[in-house]
Amino acid sequence: MPLPLARPDVVDVRIAFASLTSGVVLWALGLHMQMDRPLGSGWVLLPLGVMAALELLRRTAPQCALTLGTLALVADQFTPGNLATVVMFTDLVYAAVLYGTPAAARRIPVTTGLITVAVTIGFLAWFREPEALLVGAVTALVSFTPATTGAIVRNHREAAEMARLRAEQTALLAEKDRAQAVTAERARMARELHDMVANHLSAIAIHSTAALSLDDPKTTRDALTVIRENSVEGLAEMRRLIGILRDSSGDRDAEPAAAPTLDGLGALVRGARTNGLDVQLDDARAEDAEPLPAPVELAAYRIVQESLTNALKHAPPGRVTVALTQRPGALHVRVTSPYGDTPGPRAPGSGAGLVGMRERAALLGGTFEAGPEADPDAPGGKVWHVHARLPIDPADRGVTE
Predict the structure, then answer these.
(1) Residue ranges of the chain with pLDDT lower than 50?
(2) pLDDT tens digit string along 112-121?
(3) Fold annotation for 263-401
(4) Burial code of 133-145, b = ≥16 C-beta within 10 A, e = fewer?
């Protein structure tokens, strides 16, 4: 089956029509380029028409058009000649470089350059007159100059296209980075909201359930006292979170919100005791230990806070221990709590706390483990053990001990 030809571009049709019309006008006025040719002036119209028809292929089949155009130009040398035919040939050379294959774009300028040099040397050897250089100059104007111009324009277009592609790629990467930043910020906000409020809400839920379940005025009063304390503290934490959000949005009038540090573990433990937990804090860090980066202190504080919240919600009565150990290059946080069935009211859990603790350790390049462990001294023979290793020096990230 014959392959269908592509439809000529509108611009190519206009070029072909204008060139053919100009050539016919020049022929009608008797304006020719050469004299004393074997064929009469009427034969001028044949290469002129062929060249005009090839202009329709300058964009869709440029190499084929150049090949046939070269034959038409050679045929035109046996006629008186027409300027429009020569001009259309130069346009075919230009189009073959601009719209042709990359190999043709490299080959045509070199080929036309060699032809120009060969024609110049050949006519100098034949005429032995300086006027032979004019023949070489005309050859260069007809072939080498349009080929070089096409190569320059093509290079500029390719450079512009590469710049456009790089700009699009940069925009896509920027959009991807923005989306990742938004996702990371949402995850950070979710962790902060969960860690700051879950502890207080869990205590409120447990004590309110106890107050409703037991018909004892003293128990109800104690439960309401704990509920009020946790409500006030939860409200303060929420205000701190709002302060963080305002600072991140560029509100200069917002008061700075200090992130919690390990110095606040004492108050955290006292609050857990108020909520009914038997908590023991063992801070084994040396006084002359290297200072901890703020992200490490925040992560350690939140891991302890969430561990105490989980113990309040899920652990049976018993001792909860919090141990901090600072070794070269890393801070170790260990929290153990009783493991087993819990009598009395329980607060529901979603599992987001363990995910948040694991994410906090992973963001620092550390490790996190949580699960039941055998302990012969525990009432049920098992304890729930949480261990987080938080690197202090970035060079030590990913190094296990």
Answers:
(1) 1-4, 252-256, 396-401
(2) 889 888 988 8
(3) Heat Shock Protein 90 (3.30.565)
(4) eebbeebbebbbb
